[in-house]
Design brief:
This protein has 349 residues and is α/β, with parallel strands linked by helices. The protein has ten helices and 15 strands. The strands form three sheets. Strands 10-9-8-11-6-12-15-14 form an eight-stranded mixed sheet, with helices on both faces. Strands 2-1-3-4-5 form a five-stranded mixed sheet, with helices on both faces. The longest helix has 14 residues. The protein is elongated and about 70 Å long.
């Protein structure tokens, strides 16, 4: 958000909540990204964000950071997502806010999680606390697009990623390749960017042929951060167990038709949908789909994707494996040669 515009104080403080919340990206799954700010007489006296799933929430951290707790009764608490109202791994944040008798709470957007979804707001209002909802609502929803997708669509948020040559190929023909290793069409800087993305998503996914052809490791080894869960779609169990993806660097889900209870003649469409159901049940919040071409095309053809990150190289291959075919709208640009797209027509499988 451009703070040079004439923004209200509420928007300025909510923007700070969003800036704090994003610090948890990649570490809070399956929980949302949340930041909180406490303001007394137009001065920020407390800040906090949710660092990691299972640890204290943003509101708890912001309240704890206030040195003079007596000021809380005359303070406003800002938070980008409705305070929780249930006991999970931590107590309800709504109760803590009531206990400290904050006079006002400003909320970015309502939490769609079934055990919250307005109940946190009701608890605050019942206690006599003034509540305002909807400040920078679109920005707050965009920040937690992964969390919202899981809650509303009952599947992980899906990011497609590929690099293609200047003439529209994603890799040389398998018969023309000398080694079983990844073929890079993007620059080193863009490759590092992809590893950064891996730390931000809950999981990374490839098909069996990519493992057979490239023998990738699918880790975030070029940057500091966590490794995503590695998901390998191998319907007919073709991958050799000596492949790199079976090492102990990261957690794996090796998914076959047999493991999903499917028959050999079940369609690729059924296999993909069963896979997404399985990953949803396992609590996977987001997937970075890195290949190969057939796997990417299955997601596209079934309209099961939320954004595509496409690198265009200056390299010309003249022949090879063609890039996926997809209709999309340009969204933004990132890195040296990457454009981020969104589906042309949003569908909600």
């Amino acid at each position: 958000m451009d703070l040079k515009k004439e923004n209200t104080p509420h928007e300025i403080y909510m923007q700070r909540c969003l800036e704090l919340a994003i610090k948890g990206l990649g570490n809070t799954y399956p929980n949302p990204l949340v930041g909180s700010v406490i303001v007394h007489n137009n001065i920020i006296i407390g800040e906090g964000w949710h660092h990691k799933a299972g640890e204290t929430h943003a509101e708890v951290n912001s309240i704890a950071s206030v040195k003079n707790k007596a000021l809380l009764k005359e303070s406003i608490l800002y938070v980008n997502l409705e305070p929780c109202n249930h006991t999970g791994k931590t107590p309800p944040c709504s109760n803590l806010i009531v206990t400290h008798e904050l006079k006002k709470v400003i909320i970015g957007c309502v939490d769609p999680f079934d055990q919250v979804n307005g109940s946190g707001i009701k608890t605050l209002k019942k206690a006599g606390i003034e509540v305002v909802v909807g400040v920078l609502e679109k920005e707050a929803q965009e920040l937690n697009k992964r969390f919202f997708t899981v809650q509303q669509k009952k599947r992980p948020y899906v990011v497609l990623k590929w690099a293609e040559s200047a003439d529209g190929f994603i890799a040389p023909l398998t018969s023309k390749r000398m080694k079983k290793e990844p073929v890079f069409l993007s620059s080193k800087a863009d490759q590092v960017l992809v590893h950064q993305w891996r730390t931000q998503e809950d999981s990374i996914l490839v098909g069996a042929q990519t493992v057979i052809d490239d023998n990738p490791r699918l880790t975030s080894r070029w940057v500091k951060g966590r490794n995503p869960v590695r998901i390998i779609l191998d319907p007919n169990n073709r991958i050799d167990k000596s492949a790199n993806i079976f090492d102990e660097e990261a957690k794996n889900f090796h998914i076959t038709k047999a493991k999903l209870g499917l028959e050999k003649n079940n369609s690729p469409e059924e296999f993909l949908r069963k896979t997404l159901d399985f990953l949803y049940q396992k609590g996977i919040s987001s997937i970075l789909v890195e290949g190969g071409r057939t796997t990417l095309q299955h997601f596209i053809d079934q309209a099961i994707w939320d954004e595509a990150r496409v690198f265009t190289s200056v390299i010309t291959l003249k022949e090879g494996i063609p890039a996926p075919e997809v209709s999309f709208e340009k969204k933004s640009k990132e890195g040296e040669s990457c454009v981020i797209f969104q589906p042309q027509q949003q569908k909600h499988p």
